[in-house]
Design brief:
- The chain is mainly alpha-helical.
- It has one domain.
- Helices cover about 90% and strands about 0% of the residues.
- Helix 2 packs antiparallel against helix 3, helix 2 packs parallel to helix 4 and helix 3 runs antiparallel to helix 4.
- Belongs to the UPF0057 (PMP3) family.
- Keywords: Membrane, Transmembrane, Transmembrane helix.
- It comes from Wenyingzhuangia gilva.
């Protein structure tokens, strides 16, 4: 998935269900200058999504342990 985020950043957003971000990313990629920021944005968004999932799982485990 990380390779997709680097090579086809817009596809990375579409695959994760972020349609509006994907459309904005496509528009950004239409310029050569925008390709690098789009790729960085897609990778950062992917990492952020993984971290949010990890935090949610930890919160659920903590809440379950306190019951």
């Amino acid at each position: 998935m990380m390779l997709i985020a680097v090579l086809l950043p817009w596809l990375s957003f579409f695959l994760r269900g972020k349609i509006i971000s994907g459309i904005i990313c496509v528009i950004l990629q239409l310029t050569l200058i925008g390709w690098l920021p789009a790729a960085i944005w897609a990778v950062a968004s992917r990492v952020d999504g993984k971290n949010k999932t990890r935090i949610d799982k930890m919160e659920k485990r903590i809440m379950k342990a306190h019951k």
